[in-house]
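During the no-cost extension, the postdoctoral fellow (Dr. R.K.) reprocessed legacy sequence entries with the updated structure-token encoder. One reprocessed record is reproduced below for audit purposes.
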Amino acid sequence: MYIQSILKQVLIIFLSLKAANQALKRSRASPYDKGSRSIRATLGYFLHTLNLRLRLREIMPDTKTNPAGVVGKGVARLDAEDKVRGRSGYVDDLEIPGCWIGHLVRSLVPHGRLRGLKRDPYFDWSRVVVATPKDIPGINVVVMHDRSMPLLAFDEVRYLGEPLALVAAPTARLASEAAASITPEIDALTPILTLNELVSLFKSEDPRLFRLSSQTIVKGDVEKGLSEADHVVEGEYTAGHQEQLYLEPQGMVALPEANGGVFIQGSLQCPYYVVQELHEALNLPPGKIRVKQAAVGGAFGGKEDFPTLLGGYCALLALKSGRPVKIVFDRNQDIRYTTKRHPAWVRHRTGLKKDGTITAMRVDYLLDGGAYLTLSDVVMYRGMLHAAMGYRCENIFVNGLVARTNTFPSGAFRGFGAPQAIWGLESHIDKLAQACGMEPHEFRLKNGLRLGDTTPTGQVLEEMGAVRVLDEALKKSGFDGKIRRCSHGRRGEKKWYGIGVSFFAHGSGFTGDGESRIGTKAALDLDFGLDAKPLVSVRVSSTEIGQGSATALSQIAADELSVGIESVGCPYPDTALVPNSGPTVASRTTMIVGATVHGAAVKMKKALEEYASDTFFKGQSAVLKGGFFRCGSKTFSFQEVAGDYLKQEGPLHIVHQFTLPPTIKWDQKTFRGDAYPGYSWGCNVAEVEVDPVTLEIHLKRVTSCYDIGRVINPLLAKGQIEGGLTQAAGYALMEKIGIKGGRFDADRLQTYIIPTALDIPEYEIHFIEFPYEHAAPGAKGVGEIPMDGLAPATANAVYQATGLRMTDLPITPEKLYERLNEKR
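Re-encoded structure tokens follow.
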């Protein structure tokens, strides 16, 4: 094995030198390159290629370890070639004959009473189509988690930019001119605009605080637990808005259909949401609203609920005009007028024994929901369920609240309330460790949940890598030794060094009874593909939004069918063709939908084996394995048998429905029981350097370990983790949006600062597999958990570097400067 490893390294170096030599020949052929520059470029190319090949060798699993099947292997993304070659059809690429462009007429005040809309009499209105609330065929409501939000405001205006009317025209310029020729007449009212205002109203019990939703979690007796404590530690932690900043802005198109229905296509996460949330407003049965996903250039939760609104605007204009209508935002519009992560305030009051035992945890968790509820109640639920999660404690009280401000409605963002809750919890855990004289990692190791322990809702934990991920990350990062050399703001050092840790869980699947209510379905279709070869199509409403789900689901189907990945595809979902497998949210796609696809593959495999047995093996039992049907010494390929089946029987359609194990019980009223089907676990160790003069914070290195169940595709999983950690780094250190007069002040890429390649730290990522036992192939959630823990780990590292405990995100040099002056 040792010699084989050396030979592999020699081969890698040889291939890198060969690539570098080719680059050198190309550079010499250029009359513009000097020799020295060519040599430097070639050397750099050699080092880059060598590093890239070594990294690929590290993250790509050895295919010999699992010669049968594709689950567990780093299969390349199935959509990669189309995206690289520019063949993917994003909504703005769709060429639709006769398509008009839509535009919105918006409120210019954050709160007021709408008296009317005044049209410019000098504008030629015959060239455009205008839609107002009076043109809505059904009820003026978008049915999300309540019925409070209208499709178009008609009486009270609740946020700046709220749509009041719609315009469509043959060109974007004419549509814009028409919208500008409509003047809203509004009597302004006093708005509530910021999280700080909400916190003040909450603390003073002011009746102006409008509660959109509230809930509590009760375990034991928290007051009794506090009375038994030797120390009671308090802390408050806040975080502001965060913009999803996907590559492709929001965009939708609607086409009227001959049967009176409407076809809606666009950049979205949840096709069936659009159907369910619009059919009352459009006065159409769900069957007459067909929704199809176009290629999506990223979403991160930002295309969960908002496409319903944009799709509704396009559909209303299309139905009135009789023409296709498209609306695609530019970047400025997208940041100004779409959902953001909820601003949050978290207050902890925790009881401790001198030995570090936690006796009580009381948490207040307040979210700024914006003008309407939309998804905020479920965001609050998930946040609450993670606000005291991860540690043994018998006395817990969590008070959750979503309150209204006159800003754009807050919505889904990767993590869905958990990052705000874990930001408060894991920052506070370091304060608890300090209060009882323990190191941060020792306190976590002492109190971390273990197999058989119960969560704040009383759920007994199974198949978990909880303390394992913590222990592994601490060892891999060398935490115990490095924390002893932290700077703590000492004078005379050129750079202040600090290291911090966070430990956390993330519930996989819908919160509470969500999975049992939705009844997830998936289908597999066997038919001839475009190349006239048999192809298995995965039919689900789960969307490929950049995370690699189409590849992972195809792997699961191919693995269970025991065929090559080239025999499976996963087309964009179309509600006319796919069953409702639920939305692409909640870290549920690979775990829940993947298990449903697996169940459908089991059924399809059995059906094909029975057909092969009857048709090819004279009634003797046949087994499909490795792409071949086998019985004794006889074999027939999958292509042969499947092709014959299609010619004789026609297409094969298999449907399977997911069911939770009967042991999963949840009471939505009391918030007791099994809050999630299972949990992923993670630990982040962050290392920072802070410049004592400029107070610039450099996130140098992040060591992470995760239990995400069975790793379906390690290449995609690492990509998900690195991408999520980079978003979390931005959340921690630089992404800042203020509210000025009801408007987001950082509303373009010049003012909304995100991490670039120069800001990304060195990542070391490890997986520990504790497969989910109740649904094959055993995956748990990976999409959201990398967003959860890096902000508090970074803040804890900044504390170890500077001696300053930062409690408001993002942590900027300006905030450090203010705290440093306060301390002095």
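The chain has four domains: 2-84, 92-190+245-336, 414-507+676-823, 520-657. The chain has a mean pLDDT of 92. The remaining legacy entries will be reprocessed before the final report is submitted.
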